[in-house]
Known about the structure:
Elements: H1 47-64, E1 67-74, E2 77-84, H2 103-112, E3 115-118, E4 122-126, E5 133-145, E6 158-169, E7 175-177, E8 183-187, E9 192-194, E10 210-212, E11 217-227, E12 232-237, E13 248-251
Parallel strand pairs: 3-13
Antiparallel strand pairs: 1-2, 4-5, 5-6, 6-11, 7-10, 8-9, 8-12, 12-13
Amino acid sequence: xxxxxxxxxxxxxxxxxxxxxxxxxxxxxxxxxxxxxSPPPPPRRNVGLIVLLAVGLPLMxxxxxxxxxxxLGDTGRDVVVTEADSPNMVLPSREPASKQPTEEATAExxxxxxxxxxxxxxxxxxxxxPGLKMTVTVNQLVNPASPAQDFLKPKSGNKFVAVQxxxxxxxxxxxxxxxGNGAMLIDGEGQQYRSTIYEVREGQAFGGSATINxxxxxxxxxxxxxxxxxxxxxxxxxxxxxxxxxxxxxxLN
Length: 253
């Protein structure tokens, strides 16, 4: 009884063939075929080329820009700056023109400068509150004025002078003040005179204080006691008991 014949390998090897990877010995190669001696080389990476392009390209672009001319327009003036191989610096070709005063600065300066008018004229004054605006009109000057009561007379050598004014609220804030606190008479020698609490027969006084809503007005006399020899030339008025920046002045002669 003979043994069964083993299948012949086409490459000259005999014996049963087991699939590679299932615990058997590695496959035997036939004559004329050499197994690979080393694994295939890894794929080449162009890291050097990438780094070269990332670094070299910006340098080439910067090097190619040898000079850069920047033309700037500044209020009608052309400024040309040329800088080679270095960061550009913008320098004016001449001294910049002086800045024009802003509207806010002009308005602020106007508040501090007294406005002027004559008797019968009106001046709109600004208070410390932005919403407080009053149009002040000097209606008449009574010089001298007669005391309302015989027992309330001026001192010897003095006289009463009364200025009738109308206060009209043209702002949004309520006016609440004593008008006499912001009033002043000025004579030809620059002497100032504050108002008094006296009343005169030529007109009704404000009675101390006044509260005037928006779009409303009040009229009253402001009385002063001055020397009989005083030559009065100006009447001055300001809101907020005289503490507002804007002063109104009326010439009396």
